[in-house]
Amino acid sequence: MSPRTKQQNEEIRKQRKREILQAAVRVYAEKGYAASDMGEIADRAGLSHGLVYYYFKNKKTLFRELYETMNDESEKFTRSYFEQDKPAFGLFQTYARLLCEGVLKNPAIPRFHMRISLDLHHLYSPEEFSPFEWARNFLQPMACAIEKAAARGEIPAGDAGLAAMQFWGSVSQGMNYLDQMQQDLDAQGTPEADRKRRLDEALNQVVESSVALLRPQ
């Protein structure tokens, strides 16, 4: 067997780090930062404890990279999504629906995003990272899309930055509500047909309330 090439070794390294980060999301979603353990993350990833420490020297290093990776992915998706040349109301409506459906299909990822803000003081000093600056950058593509749509007369005119903040606030609170609702229904052993109906109704309500301010008049 011929030795692996440098490129193959790099691909293996990237894959191992992806596996560790994905496991860390699941552990964090269940336990939060303080109770998350490097050994359990290694077990969830199906890797040895020593290998996890080879890639990440401690829990703080791991979760900093996880947080920055997740933020980067969210920012890229949002920026790309709102660059689409489509009517704004439908664009925001579909975005809200995609995120809410994501909560129900794979709750660990949105649960991570919703909870990590409470643990940032474990990862960064105030000088190292500003969540407010990140939020401003994240909301910028939404504000830009709102501003353009208002100029075209598609949606009501107003402060685009404020409208983007109100939209995102409604979506994120709705995602949190749907996540908790799904957990409660599962804990109660709700029959599948009733469970699906109630979640669909709640999801539709979250979507419609999120875009209410953007509805064409």
Automatic annotation (TrEMBL):
Binding region for DNA: 37-56
Pfam families in the record: TetR_N (PF00440)
Occurrences of domain HTH tetR-type (ranges): 14-74
Keywords: DNA-binding
Name listed for the protein in its UniProt record: TetR/AcrR family transcriptional regulator
Protein species of origin: Cohnella zeiphila
Gene Ontology molecular function: any one: transcription cis-regulatory region binding
PANTHER family xrefs: HTH-TYPE TRANSCRIPTIONAL REGULATOR PKSA, HTH-TYPE TRANSCRIPTIONAL REGULATOR RUTR
